[in-house]
Every structure is written in C-alpha cells, then in structure tokens.
Design a protein that fits this description.
binds 3,4-dihydroxyphenylalanine; about 350 residues; about 40% helix; alpha+beta; 11 helices; BirA Bifunctional Protein, domain 2; two-stranded antiparallel ribbon; about 20% strand; 2 domains
Length: about 350
C-alpha cells in the first residue's frame, strides 16, 4: 500500500515538471490544478495516515516537494508569459497615433496683475523686496508711526497669533518698509508685492486676505515732485498712455503729507461710466512723503534723507481692469474663472 501511494506522488511531481503552460489561460489552469484552494496535492497529504510510521517523514517531504516544484514552475512560467505580453504590447504600439492632449495651465489673475505692476517699476530701477507674512507688532505698526490707540491695532481688525499681543498676520505691505529700512542704507528703491490679512467679514467687496504692492524710495533730496512723476509714469504704463492722474490730500500715519491717487477712468476715458461711478476718476492707491518719524524709527537720519512711499491693492485693480464684481472669485480656484486669464496681458 505504502509504495503505491509514494508512486502516485512521484508521478504527480513528474506531471508537474513536464507541464509546460505557454499562455495565460494554460497558466491559470495549472495554478488551479496544483496551487489553488482545491488543488490535487492537498488530498495526498491526507493519505499520510495510510503510511507506515517510519516512512511518514519521507512521505511528508515528498508531498512538500510536489508543492515546491509546482510553485517554481508557476513563477518561472508567469514571468515568461508577462514578458511575452509586454513585448506584444510594444509591437502593437502605433507611433503615428495622436498624443493625449495636456491641458495647459494659466497664471492666476492676481499673479498676472502683480507681475505687471512689478515689471513697470523694475524698468525704472526698483528692485523686489519680499518679506514675512507673520510679522511683529513693531514692524507692522510701531515703526510705521501707528499710535497705540489706532483702530487697526485692535483685535477686531487684525489677526493676532494665538495667545499673542506681539505677533500678527501683517495688515499691509508697509511692514516691508520697516524691514528694509532697518537693514539697508539709502539709497533705497524697492517694490514689495505680497499677501496681507485683515479681520474683515467676507463679502463681494472685501476679503480677510488680499494682496498689495508697496513702493519705497529713499535718498538725499527726494521730493513730492519725484513721487508724482513716478506715479504718473506708472499710471500711463498700467492703464494706457492717455491716462491722467489726480492726487487728493489724505492721511496715513506713516506719510506726511499723504495723498490718495485717482487715475482717469480707463473705460470711459473720463466722461463717466459704471466703473468710475460717473465721476471719471478711479481711486488706485495711497501715497506720501515718508514721515521723518518713520525714518528715525528705522535708524535713518531724517535731516539728511527724505523719501516717498505708496501702497496699492492688487485685487481692486484686477477687478477694475477685468470688470470682476466679486472679490471671492479670486480665492475659489474655479478653473472656469481662472481659465479666462490665459492671455489677459
Ligand atoms: N498701507 C496702506 C494701506 O494698507 C497703503 C499705503 C498708503 C501705503 C500710503 C503707503 C503709503 O506706503 O504711503 O491702506
């Protein structure tokens, strides 16, 4: 009895060795027969009870050999089959077939507007200064001559970091003025684009985050006439050669005197329309001569140096230029909106 059972296992091993599955289907049949859950090797292990005790060990080893041989054959044939499939796929590759089109991205309208403004000022010698968005109270407010009781310093208007009265999200890019002036000696001629934050209720007209570009020019003998000429050049480059500007007296803690600048409406040319609310003028930025107190706060001798500064909102200009009526569109990342600016400039 024993030898008969041994012979059956040996025969099976022979069968496995000589099996030559040559394609996927044959390989699967092989797997089911010798390695699947209902394979033919498993019941042979049960037959061990018919084997004399002293031969049980040999028998067990023989059945295990059958399993191992099946596994080896399966793995080597599997590799061959996969290789053959990959080669066949290459042979069927149609090199003349048209490629998959890759959708082209586009720059964000805020980036486009910001780049355009930076480019205009770069052409007259301004270099870009980029600084941190998490600022301390001194650079954002104190150095910029903003009094202790100024409403902007209030928690209602400014995002302070958790448990801090010192660290905040900058409320304007004017903080870059303080950063630059404390580290560089005049002449200073910088343009500072970047994101700013204010604790505002989000609506179509205002957002808790937006972008500004700050400008600062400090040297000996810089005058209000320099400021006016620089801004006129900017307005003409940005809104067209026919653009006129108008400066209205205003107040900012960090400039004296201060002004707000309007440009003649680029849509109606000044005759009055919806964009300029029938006035013919559109407000673009705040500016002025750097207050001597700000220069002194930052270690610059105000008896020797003077300077001008200006700051403008990017969203506002992009909205005017493209007649966008809701600021929230800039932050929603809806590609149907963003795709429209592919060739905006
Ligand atoms: N920082 C001001 C704001 O956020 C804008 C501004 C006004 C900047 C006048 C200036 C300036 O540099 O001179 O509203």
């Amino acid at each position: 009895m024993s030898t008969e059972v041994f012979d059956r296992v040996k025969q099976l091993i022979e069968e496995i060795r000589s099996a030559k599955p040559s394609n996927k289907e044959e390989l699967e049949a092989f797997r089911l027969r010798f390695l699947g859950t209902k394979n033919v090797i498993k019941p042979l292990m049960g037959e061990i009870r018919l084997i004399a005790n002293e031969l049980k060990k040999d028998y067990g080893q023989l059945v295990n050999e059958a399993k191992e041989v099946a596994e080896t054959v399966f793995q080597s044939v599997k590799e061959l089959v996969e290789q053959a499939e990959a080669e066949a796929a290459v042979q069927h590759l149609d090199l003349t077939a048209p490629g998959e089109p890759m959708p082209l991205g586009s720059r964000h309208p805020i980036t486009l507007t910001m780049n355009r403004i930076v480019d205009i000022f770069s052409r007259i010698g301004f270099t870009v200064a980029e600084e941190r968005e998490i600022e301390d109270d001194w650079h954002n407010f104190t150095a910029m001559n903003t009094p202790e009781d100024h409403p902007a310093r209030d928690m209602q208007d400014t995002y302070y970091l958790k448990d801090s009265t010192e660290m905040l999200l900058r409320t304007h890019t004017s903080s870059v003025q303080a950063r630059v002036m404390t580290h560089q000696k005049p002449p200073i001629r910088i343009i500072a684009p970047g994101r700013v934050y204010r604790n505002e209720t989000i609506s179509a007209r205002s957002h808790c985050q937006f972008h500004q570009v700050e400008g600062l020019y400090i040297d000996e003998g810089v005058s209000f006439a320099d400021l006016k000429q620089t801004l006129l050049y900017f307005a003409k480059e940005m809104y067209g050669a026919d653009t006129r500007i108008r400066l209205r007296p205003s107040f900012f803690p960090f400039t004296e005197p201060s002004a707000e600048m309007d440009v003649s409406c680029f849509l109606c040319g000044g005759s009055g329309c919806r964009i300029c609310k029938q006035t013919g003028w559109v407000e673009i930025l705040g500016c002025g001569m750097v207050d001597p107190a700000v220069l002194e706060n930052c270690g610059i001798d105000s008896s020797r140096y003077t300077g001008f500064a200006f700051g403008m909102g990017i969203e506002r200009q992009a909205m005017l230029l493209h007649q966008i009526n809701d600021i929230r569109l800039f932050f929603e990342n809806d590609v149907r909106f963003l795709n429209q600016f592919k060739s905006a400039f």
